[in-house]
Amino acid sequence: MIFAAIFFFAFLSSFIFSGAYWKVSTGDYDMAMKLQKTGGATFFILAILGWYITVVMMAAEMRMTISLPVGDLSHLWPMHPGDLADMYGAGRGEGGLRLLT
Q1: Shortest CA distance to 85 belongs to which of 97, 75, 76?
Q2: pLDDT higher for 66 or 6?
Q3: CB-based burial of residue 95 (10 Å sphere; 0-12 exposed, 13-18 middle, 19+ buried)?
Q4: Of 9, 28, 86, 93, which cross-links 82 as Cys (Cβ 3.0–4.6 Å)?
Q5: Which of the pair, 37 or 101, is modelled with greater confidence?
Q6: Integer angstrom CA distances of residue 11 from 42, 60, 65, 74
Q7: Alpha-helix runs per DSSP H in 1-101
Q8: CA separation for the pair 95, 91 (Å, rounded)
Q9: Spatial distance between the Cα atoms of 73 and 8, rounded to a whole number of angstroms
């Protein structure tokens, strides 16, 4: 859910900022200022979510006991019958990626 929110706010803020620049080009400076403040606020939300997901990933990599919620959207896609390693035969000598030893 956090990744989806990050991409949504990035998408939204890019359109808000482009609208602000459009208003500057037409000479409507009051509306351009409002759009720039709105775009800055959405970009601030984007930055907060980015820091949050960074902290979550760092905590997971350092094997910390804290488990922060990020949301699960896996129920929106169908489940695959096997793991990717099983699909490509990796680790069994049946193709796929092999490690050089």
Answers
A1: 97
A2: 6
A3: exposed
A4: 86
A5: 37
A6: 10, 27, 34, 22
A7: 2-26, 29-61, 84-88
A8: 8
A9: 14
